[in-house]
Amino acid sequence: MKLLIENWREYLDEMVSDGRGLAHHGQFKGLIERDVNIPKMVGYHVTRAVFDQFDNSRLGSNTDMGKAGQDKYNLDSYLGHMFVPDYQQLGPHKDKLVGDGNTPYMYSVTLTPGKVAVLNIKRFKKWFSADAKHSRQNLKEFGKWLKQNGYGGLHYSDPTMKGRLMADTIQIFDAGDTKIRSIWNMDTDVRFRAKDLQGQSFADAFGANQ
Question: Of 70, 119, 121, 158, which is most buried by a Cβ count within 10 Å?
Fold first, then answer.
Protein backbone atom coordinates (compact mmCIF):
# COMPACT_ATOMS: atom_id res chain seq x y z
CA MET A 1 0.00 0.00 0.00
CA LYS A 2 1.41 3.34 -0.96
CA LEU A 3 2.11 6.33 1.25
CA LEU A 4 1.13 5.04 4.68
CA ILE A 5 3.55 7.49 6.27
CA GLU A 6 1.21 9.63 8.35
CA ASN A 7 -0.87 6.81 9.76
CA TRP A 8 2.19 4.74 10.57
CA ARG A 9 4.19 7.60 12.10
CA GLU A 10 1.26 8.60 14.30
CA TYR A 11 1.23 5.14 15.84
CA LEU A 12 4.94 4.42 16.15
CA ASP A 13 6.73 6.34 18.89
CA GLU A 14 10.48 6.81 19.08
CA MET A 15 11.01 3.87 21.40
CA VAL A 16 13.91 1.97 19.81
CA SER A 17 17.02 1.57 21.90
CA ASP A 18 20.45 2.59 20.60
CA GLY A 19 21.57 -1.02 20.57
CA ARG A 20 23.28 -2.89 17.76
CA GLY A 21 20.15 -3.97 15.99
CA LEU A 22 17.37 -6.50 16.34
CA ALA A 23 19.34 -9.47 15.00
CA HIS A 24 21.87 -9.18 17.83
CA HIS A 25 19.14 -9.44 20.46
CA GLY A 26 17.47 -12.61 19.21
CA GLN A 27 14.12 -10.88 19.15
CA PHE A 28 12.69 -11.87 15.77
CA LYS A 29 10.41 -14.63 17.05
CA GLY A 30 9.21 -12.42 19.88
CA LEU A 31 7.62 -10.02 17.41
CA ILE A 32 5.30 -12.69 16.04
CA GLU A 33 2.10 -13.53 17.91
CA ARG A 34 1.24 -16.53 15.75
CA ASP A 35 1.46 -17.95 12.25
CA VAL A 36 -1.53 -18.25 9.94
CA ASN A 37 -1.89 -19.89 6.55
CA ILE A 38 -3.53 -17.77 3.85
CA PRO A 39 -3.68 -19.86 0.66
CA LYS A 40 -5.94 -17.30 -1.03
CA MET A 41 -7.77 -14.09 -0.14
CA VAL A 42 -8.90 -10.81 -1.72
CA GLY A 43 -7.10 -7.62 -0.76
CA TYR A 44 -7.47 -3.98 -1.79
CA HIS A 45 -4.85 -1.38 -2.64
CA VAL A 46 -5.09 2.27 -3.71
CA THR A 47 -2.53 4.04 -5.88
CA ARG A 48 -2.41 6.79 -8.50
CA ALA A 49 -0.93 4.54 -11.20
CA VAL A 50 -2.56 2.07 -13.60
CA PHE A 51 -0.64 -1.14 -14.25
CA ASP A 52 -1.28 -4.81 -15.01
CA GLN A 53 0.79 -6.49 -12.34
CA PHE A 54 2.53 -5.65 -9.09
CA ASP A 55 6.29 -5.38 -9.48
CA ASN A 56 8.85 -5.90 -6.70
CA SER A 57 11.23 -3.48 -8.42
CA ARG A 58 8.68 -0.68 -7.94
CA LEU A 59 8.48 -1.04 -4.17
CA GLY A 60 9.05 2.36 -2.60
CA SER A 61 8.80 4.28 -5.88
CA ASN A 62 5.98 6.38 -4.45
CA THR A 63 7.13 6.39 -0.85
CA ASP A 64 10.48 6.09 0.88
CA MET A 65 12.66 6.14 -2.22
CA GLY A 66 10.44 8.27 -4.41
CA LYS A 67 9.41 11.89 -4.74
CA ALA A 68 6.02 11.52 -3.08
CA GLY A 69 7.53 10.14 0.11
CA GLN A 70 10.16 12.88 0.29
CA ASP A 71 12.68 10.31 1.57
CA LYS A 72 10.55 9.47 4.60
CA TYR A 73 10.50 6.07 6.24
CA ASN A 74 7.79 3.73 4.96
CA LEU A 75 7.11 0.04 5.44
CA ASP A 76 6.34 -0.97 1.86
CA SER A 77 9.75 0.29 0.77
CA TYR A 78 11.41 -2.27 3.01
CA LEU A 79 9.12 -5.29 3.23
CA GLY A 80 6.52 -5.55 0.48
CA HIS A 81 3.19 -4.69 -1.12
CA MET A 82 0.41 -3.65 1.26
CA PHE A 83 -3.31 -4.45 1.09
CA VAL A 84 -6.38 -4.29 3.30
CA PRO A 85 -9.11 -6.98 3.40
CA ASP A 86 -11.96 -4.43 3.47
CA TYR A 87 -12.08 -1.88 0.63
CA GLN A 88 -14.09 0.55 2.78
CA GLN A 89 -11.02 0.98 4.95
CA LEU A 90 -9.28 2.83 2.10
CA GLY A 91 -11.97 5.34 1.13
CA PRO A 92 -11.30 7.96 3.83
CA HIS A 93 -7.58 7.87 3.05
CA LYS A 94 -7.59 7.93 -0.74
CA ASP A 95 -6.26 11.49 -1.13
CA LYS A 96 -3.47 10.80 1.31
CA LEU A 97 -2.55 7.61 -0.51
CA VAL A 98 -2.28 9.11 -3.99
CA GLY A 99 -1.35 12.72 -3.26
CA ASP A 100 -3.39 15.87 -3.85
CA GLY A 101 -4.71 16.26 -7.37
CA ASN A 102 -4.00 12.69 -8.47
CA THR A 103 -6.61 10.13 -9.54
CA PRO A 104 -7.17 7.32 -7.00
CA TYR A 105 -7.38 3.82 -8.47
CA MET A 106 -8.51 0.99 -6.20
CA TYR A 107 -7.16 -2.46 -7.03
CA SER A 108 -8.98 -5.65 -6.10
CA VAL A 109 -6.29 -8.32 -5.92
CA THR A 110 -6.16 -12.06 -5.27
CA LEU A 111 -3.41 -12.70 -2.71
CA THR A 112 -1.72 -16.08 -2.17
CA PRO A 113 0.98 -15.45 0.45
CA GLY A 114 0.80 -18.82 2.22
CA LYS A 115 2.48 -18.65 5.65
CA VAL A 116 1.90 -15.23 7.23
CA ALA A 117 3.19 -13.83 10.52
CA VAL A 118 0.71 -11.99 12.72
CA LEU A 119 2.62 -9.24 14.47
CA ASN A 120 2.70 -8.19 18.07
CA ILE A 121 2.30 -4.47 17.35
CA LYS A 122 3.56 -3.29 20.73
CA ARG A 123 6.81 -5.18 20.33
CA PHE A 124 7.04 -4.24 16.68
CA LYS A 125 6.89 -0.50 17.39
CA LYS A 126 9.66 -0.83 19.97
CA TRP A 127 12.11 -1.68 17.20
CA PHE A 128 10.74 0.01 14.09
CA SER A 129 9.75 3.51 15.15
CA ALA A 130 10.02 5.84 12.15
CA ASP A 131 12.91 8.01 13.30
CA ALA A 132 14.66 5.62 15.64
CA LYS A 133 18.29 4.70 15.27
CA HIS A 134 18.87 1.38 13.46
CA SER A 135 15.18 1.02 12.50
CA ARG A 136 15.90 0.72 8.78
CA GLN A 137 18.62 -1.86 9.28
CA ASN A 138 16.41 -3.75 11.70
CA LEU A 139 13.63 -3.87 9.11
CA LYS A 140 15.97 -5.22 6.46
CA GLU A 141 17.24 -7.88 8.86
CA PHE A 142 13.70 -8.78 9.90
CA GLY A 143 12.50 -9.06 6.30
CA LYS A 144 15.42 -11.29 5.39
CA TRP A 145 14.79 -13.52 8.40
CA LEU A 146 11.07 -13.83 7.59
CA LYS A 147 11.72 -14.89 4.00
CA GLN A 148 14.42 -17.35 5.06
CA ASN A 149 11.90 -18.93 7.43
CA GLY A 150 9.24 -19.43 4.78
CA TYR A 151 6.97 -16.45 5.43
CA GLY A 152 5.14 -14.95 2.46
CA GLY A 153 3.79 -11.93 4.29
CA LEU A 154 2.80 -10.11 7.47
CA HIS A 155 -0.53 -9.26 9.06
CA TYR A 156 -0.68 -6.04 11.08
CA SER A 157 -3.76 -5.97 13.27
CA ASP A 158 -4.83 -3.75 16.15
CA PRO A 159 -8.52 -3.12 16.94
CA THR A 160 -7.56 -0.01 18.94
CA MET A 161 -6.53 1.65 15.66
CA LYS A 162 -10.01 1.47 14.12
CA GLY A 163 -10.26 3.79 11.12
CA ARG A 164 -6.52 3.92 10.49
CA LEU A 165 -4.82 2.22 7.60
CA MET A 166 -2.74 -0.06 9.81
CA ALA A 167 -5.71 -1.33 11.82
CA ASP A 168 -5.93 -4.39 9.55
CA THR A 169 -3.28 -4.65 6.83
CA ILE A 170 -1.72 -7.54 4.92
CA GLN A 171 1.79 -7.11 3.55
CA ILE A 172 2.86 -9.43 0.71
CA PHE A 173 6.58 -9.90 0.11
CA ASP A 174 6.50 -11.20 -3.47
CA ALA A 175 4.57 -9.66 -6.36
CA GLY A 176 4.24 -13.19 -7.76
CA ASP A 177 1.75 -13.86 -4.96
CA THR A 178 -0.63 -11.20 -6.28
CA LYS A 179 -3.07 -11.20 -9.20
CA ILE A 180 -5.14 -8.16 -10.15
CA ARG A 181 -8.86 -8.89 -10.42
CA SER A 182 -10.15 -5.40 -11.19
CA ILE A 183 -9.29 -1.69 -11.05
CA TRP A 184 -11.76 1.03 -10.09
CA ASN A 185 -11.33 4.73 -10.82
CA MET A 186 -12.71 6.15 -7.58
CA ASP A 187 -13.28 9.60 -9.09
CA THR A 188 -15.23 8.59 -12.20
CA ASP A 189 -16.66 5.31 -10.83
CA VAL A 190 -15.39 3.46 -13.92
CA ARG A 191 -14.28 -0.10 -13.21
CA PHE A 192 -12.64 -2.73 -15.40
CA ARG A 193 -12.28 -6.41 -14.53
CA ALA A 194 -9.34 -8.44 -15.77
CA LYS A 195 -11.62 -11.05 -17.33
CA ASP A 196 -13.36 -8.37 -19.43
CA LEU A 197 -10.26 -6.74 -20.94
CA GLN A 198 -10.31 -8.90 -24.10
CA GLY A 199 -6.57 -8.64 -24.66
CA GLN A 200 -6.24 -5.01 -23.62
CA SER A 201 -4.08 -3.84 -20.77
CA PHE A 202 -5.65 -1.97 -17.86
CA ALA A 203 -3.74 1.13 -18.99
CA ASP A 204 -5.34 0.84 -22.43
CA ALA A 205 -8.79 0.35 -20.93
CA PHE A 206 -8.47 3.48 -18.79
CA GLY A 207 -6.77 5.45 -21.55
CA ALA A 208 -3.67 5.88 -19.43
CA ASN A 209 -1.39 5.29 -22.43
CA GLN A 210 -2.83 8.22 -24.37
Answer: 119
pTM of the entire structure?
A: 0.81
User: Which SS3 state, helix, strand or coil, does residue 84 take?
Assistant: strand
7-12: list long-range contacts, CB under 8 Å, 24+ apart: 7/93, 7/96, 7/164, 7/165, 7/166, 8/74, 8/75, 8/130, 8/165, 8/166, 9/72, 9/73, 9/130, 10/164, 11/121, 11/125, 11/161, 11/164, 11/166, 12/125, 12/128, 12/129, 12/130
Range of the structural domain that residue 181 is part of: 5-206
Q: Read off the pLDDT of residues 20-52 as tens digits, 9 standing for 90 and up.
A: 454 544 678 888 999 999 999 999 999 988 999
135-148 vs 121-128: helix axis angle to the nearest 10? Answer: 130
Q: Which helix (H) or strand (E) holds 7?
A: helix 5-11
Which residues partner with 11 through β-bridges?
none
User: Which range, of 35-49, 57-71, 169-183, averages the lowest pLDDT?
Assistant: 57-71
According to DSSP, the residues that pair with 182 across neighbouring strands are 108, 193
Instruction: Domain count for the chain, please give it.
Output: 1
